[in-house]
């Protein structure tokens, strides 16, 4: 079935006028093609930020229900996706400060424009979405462009960019940057259409993996199986989202068209992988971006101290469970009494494999700990890294990224991993229609989750799989070289000269340690004379969403308030020439058990 196509350069008379402009910022001749364009309206019990749920609805423990679990409507899927992505990013728990001390979940009516876009050379599209509030400020003409954190779907930055930009009358443009939750069920031969509903091959799917003899059963997803290495194109994904914002504004407000990079302010913001994506967009040589705010960015550079995500993830997957037995007072969960026996087994297995030393568990744990410290891990990152160990995030990330970097298709993954629904016997089975229908709204973009599981080639020997994954970094065979080539393609360059960039990172980040990512990036950029400012936030780890867990809320501060504050500062700078924020190590104060977050805890720089 053919899907409609929209090309920016021919989208109407006003775009022709825009294409005639002489400035490089306004040129649209090389604009991308957007397939499957959709426009939806969100008013009267629905809205752009929360789909009518409001803060109370977002805080509800149960997701919004589907009337028919096997065939939810696009509106039901959207509402549930917004609920899931808000809860996956922000600390919405009472006492956490959201909606009271910082942030907004306001009712913002408006329209959504969405499409599928492709960067040159890609096999698969990425999603782009533009939210245009009814109160769009046509005089200020501002666009906030963002990329989903992690591997999340198209609403994966709603709590970051949407919450700041929409209440201010800005349009907000999103990209899933070639990842997202467009899962494909190989058993059923079905994937996800542009509107989030389930469809068959040839029905305008957002991700349709190549049909091969080895891809007959299980679940494929875009980040791992697109064969595009999407991370290499993060900057281009962000720019295409911004380009789609301009054409969407032309369509929304034809009387005010053309909207161009010359006459429209564009601020890029993202966190985690989204933070890395906007820093990659900052490399663009043409002058289309006005400012960048990057929180806890996954960014890899040629600077001293920088380590690739795949390098330290596979190291942590192997060693950290054992190393954490050497640490005292870890945050809970994971519950120490529950994980200690498993981590003790890991120590013994590592010793047997010759990877650590020590004649007893204590000595082995110390050996693993010292190995991580020698490779640049801080005690703060190790402490917070307990969460990633407890939720098995290191393995989940390593398997997905090995496949992505090596451009492997489903069934070709080098360490024999696969993805599938599991039965009560823990053996792979076909997914149900209800499970399949909820993947787009409920999944995070990297299994396990939403009923899709990560299956090892030999589930009885987990260390074997982890050693294989680590070997793709430390080894030199054909698979390792393939993964290394993919990682090299993701290396970030310096931001454009004169572009204001603010980087914010929690010093306790246990998933993307600043020592391996933002710190080397900032150091290199500042040495080269780029306009990069750096806020290092004490007592902040990677996941605001987990601050609803009492022990984490007592120990750690949210990062989102600092991202919003940095956006305020760069916006004021662009408006009035106000000074950009200075570098700061922010001496926050943990709120402690049972205490509501207060402004004094945040110690926001002035």
Could you characterize the architecture of this molecule?
This protein is of the alpha/beta class. 35% of the residues lie in helices and 14% in strands. The protein has 19 helices and 18 strands. It has an eleven-stranded mixed sheet with strand order 1-2-3-4-6-5-11-12-16-17-18, with helices on both faces. The protein has a three-stranded antiparallel sheet with strand order 14-13-15, with no helix packed on it. The chain has a two-stranded antiparallel sheet with strand order 7-10. Helix 6 packs across helix 7 and helix 8 packs antiparallel against helix 14.
Strand order within the widest beta sheet = 1-2-3-4-6-5-11-12-16-17-18
H/I helix tally: 19
Shape: globular
How does the major sheet shape up?
Answer: 11 strands, mixed
How many beta-strand segments?
18
* Class from secondary-structure proportions: alpha/beta
- How far the N terminus sits from the C terminus, by CA atoms, comes to 56 Å
Strand residues, percent: 5-15%
Rg computed from alpha carbons, rounded to a whole number of angstroms: 23 Å
